[in-house]
Amino acid sequence: MEVKILKNKTEMSKAAAAYGAEVLRKVLAEKGAVNMITATAPSQFEMMSFLVQEPGIDWSKVEMFHLDEYVNLPETHPASFRKYLKERFVAKTNVGKAHFVDGTKENIAFLTEE
After folding, report:
1. Given the DSSP bridges, would you call strands 34-38 and 97-99 parallel, antiparallel or unpaired?
2. Are 93 and 61 in contact (CB under 8 A)?
3. Do 56 and 89 contact (CB within 8 A), yes or no?
4. Strand order in 97-99's β-sheet?
5. Of the four listed, 50, 52, 85, 113, which is most buried by Cβ atoms within 10 Å?
6. What pLDDT digit, counting tens, does each position of 33-91 carry?
7. Is 102 or 24 the better-scoring residue by pLDDT?
8. pTM, two decimal places
9. Is 36 in a helix, a strand, or coil?
10. Strand locations in 49-112, DSSP E?
């Protein structure tokens, strides 16, 4: 593993986005399609804003899997990670296919004990 020490969060976010884009382009070139997991947390927001600007990624061949969501939080809530990804990632990349975690009560009933 290579460790990089950068000046600030913005530089770290740019470097992470560039590295992620490099991996996406490489896998797309080799395999023709790629699956990716998107994490949604404040630590990822700036990186994601740089990633969507990276050139040379055929987003239509990317299948995205959303990693996490708040329990019982509707997608309409401003803190919803689904809302964030749909507005700031999917809409900006036109990703081929996106799978979202729905943390509403109806969908998490299997996690609770009766």
Report:
1. unpaired
2. no
3. no
4. 34-38, 62-66, 97-99
5. 85
6. 999 999 888 888 999 999 999 999 999 999 999 988 888 888 999 999 999 999 999 99
7. 24
8. 0.85
9. strand
10. 62-66, 97-99
Q: Which residue has the higher pLDDT, 109 or 99?
A: 99
Query: Do β-strands 97-99 and 62-66 pair in parallel, antiparallel, or remain unpaired?
Result: parallel
Measuring CA to CA, how many Å separate 7 from each of 12, 13, 46, 76? Answer: 8, 11, 15, 36
- How many CB atoms sit inside 10 A of residue 59's CB? 18
Residues 61, 27 contacting (CB under 8 angstroms): no
Q: What tokens appear for 54 in the block? A: 């990276």
Residue 25 token pair? 């382009």
Q: In sequence order, what are the residues at sequence separation of 6 or more whose Cβ sits closer than 8 angstroms to the Cβ of residue 45?
A: 84, 88
Reading the block at residue 37, the tokens are 């997991």
